[in-house]
Write a structure and sequence with these properties.
Number of strands: 0
Oligomer: single chain
Largest sheet: none
Distance between the termini: 138 Å
Amino acid sequence: MPQTHHATDQATPSTAPPAPPAPPTALSLEERLTLVNMAMTMRLDEAAVTYEVNTAHIDTEPVDLADVLTLPLTPTLQPPPTPYPTPVAALLQRAHHRLLTGGWCTGALVDAEGARCLYGAIHIEARGDQSLESRGLEVLMDAIRRKFTDVDSVPSFNDGFANGRIPLRMLDQAAGLADSRGL
């Protein structure tokens, strides 16, 4: 007699199938901002390192803040500084103040608006004293040559700039130099 196999009760699993994963909970605004902040910080750090690596071979000069930070000068609000006690230093200081309040120019002793170049300011402030004027120009050239070795005269130095920041700074340094020398 042939044996027939009947489908028998198959064993039912004793454990239930795993539940589908719960949908992720939505992040709060604070959590999303924190994650974005962390991602941006990491990207900025990587960019900074990349920049440093890519520019390490480039020679740079430090920035002089006197070239960057400027304030508008209003002649009526700028009292004359306390004068230096020595004549040449006082002359250079007066010339500096005149350029600050009256304006700086290039290419002429005095322009149409009354602005003056370095030489023009020293000349007018020397008030006809040729000896004082020449000593002032000499000290100014000494101060200029400390930073600019290839300059041959005050007028050529003055005319080598598009604005008066550096020429005025050199005039101020020359006044300090004259004072320290007792001139």
